[in-house]
Amino acid sequence: MEKVFGRSKGLSGTPFSFCPGCTHGIIMRLIAEVLEELDIIEETIGVSPVGCSGFCQDFFTCDFVSGAHGRAQAIGNGIKRALPDKIVFTYQGDGDIAGIGTQHAIHTAARGEKITSIMVNNALYGMTGGQMAPTTLKGMKTTTTPYGREVEVYGYPIDLPKIIAALDGAVYVASVSVDTPKNVLQTKKAIKKAFRVQQAGLGFALVSVLSTCPTNWGLSPQESLKWLRENMMPFYAMGELKATEEVKNL
Amino acid sequence: MVKKVLMKGNEIIAQAAIEAGCKLFFGYPITPSTEIIEYLAKHLPKAGGTVLQAEDEIGAISMCYGAAATGARVMTASSSPGISLKQEGLSYCAAAELPVVVVNVNRTGPGLGGLGPMQSDYFQSTKGGGHGDYRLLVLAPSKAQELYDLTMEAFDLADKYRNPVLLLTDGFLGQMMEPVELKPKPASPEFDRSWIVNGAKGRKKRIIASYALSNEVGEAINLHWEAKYKELKEKEQRWEEFYAGDADYLIVSYGTTARIAKSVVLNARRKGIKLGLIRPITLWPFPEKAFLPYKEKIKGAVTVELNTGQMIEDVKLALECKVPVHLYRRLGGMLPTEDEILAFVEKTFCPGLEEV
Amino acid sequence: MAKVKVLSQYCKCCQLCIEVCPQGGLKVGDKTNARGYNTVVPVNEEKCTGCTLCAIMCPDVAIEVYK
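ok -> structure tokens follow
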């Protein structure tokens, strides 16, 4: 018999540090597979954020730089400007990229920095125990919005990919989900395209992936997928939000 | 001998960076440091480098962090309020041991302050600034030639110790015009590059990071940094002495005020007062060694600073409080005159001299 | 003829694989791994079609599929 599915060479042997059922792991697997399939593991430098995904440098076999909360894209820009022929990607939670690091998200896209950013949106701050994030849905309970996110007090969630798609330097923006096998395959396609955009030097590419946080949502892994599907997917704009002609022709 | 040219302080720093092989500059405009990014924007690309005006100071220092991780020579420059924003990144650079050269053209503060020179960022520069127990190597040039020479050397020192180096100047040094010899940079030694990230081709992957979730690892890393800082203290204290050998009294001053203090020493000598000067060139490590021969010998010291008394604390420690140490300061962008400093020295140390 | 192999050192027993398998081919086993998780094991192995749905949904890349 032939192995038709196994661990990618892009992954180190270190088990993921995430809680059971957390879909961070699916997204990391997809990135590792894409790096292997494009044969760029040895050309790639990843940049990790702070938060649950802050340990991702341990899980990949490519070089990695870990920096301050929210700064992954600025760090990635520095790396890419120093090594324009290498592949640079950032892996960031929603709090990292849409909260404390928003300025870098906007300007990285506006400048058309030739890096790839993967945003993982679970609608709260997971690592610190489930506080409100910029992406927390209206009415959603977190430890800092114990009565639900009241928009009169906390305003509305940010749909960052929509904002990024409006900027000229961003050439590919996709919002995807890993709630079903079909959507996982769709996510992989989007991630692969985002890396190919960088290989072709076309501009900035962002893939936002809706992800679960069973622990802080207080749901089972299976219920979490359903909650994501029923609550997050209707709110956030899904699909390819932007693909320039050049990207479509890739 | 290279012909001297007349240049502005900030432009001298920028030219020195190019000569030192700086390949990337990330910055954000702020008076009175802006000529550095402007000069580099014009000249660094011609030397094969990259200049990027970042979204903000936090972005600029984070870009430096990323570029330095690849082993490239990288610099950023700003003035006081902008340097405050860079403190997060500086702490991370120190922790990840990344060689970044940072220029602070000190303006007045706190808050937005004004555009004149102050030495009000001495504490911030030498005692931390960002979070955590780290040190920057802090160089304090005092004249045009030193702006040039120390900027070039800052890159070697950053690479040698894998530590951020801060060049602390001020609004006066940055804006003044003075002749400078644009000497070619002496060859750098070979630096260890076994830590850089540039793609794991034919080698194991590398990680640049600064986290330590276990306390045991945390202590081990802190001990490693402590050993480096001890080595810096041992090997890199620098200072200039001016008529200090036989002095009864010492002025201690760096940067802009040290220029004025030199004239004060000469004027005092003409009046028969045995005044000398110790001018720290490294502010961290503070040149404690400079004071060893004098702490039992002199009768008193005065620090001349553009703040309400910051370096004076290090001078008192270096002199072990064996003699009185006084402060003469001007604030808010004002510079002291030679005469007012000399009058303070006379009044403090030689009361009654005026009547003689 | 197909087969799934659970790499028990990675498994955290989140059971997403069990939910997604159309053949009822996985269940929670009796053995605990070094990190304290009861790990998933294949059952009804003759029914496995090698569709890889379990591996696609596994957040810990703990499943290999052979065909």
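Chains C and B do not touch (no CB pair under 8 Å).
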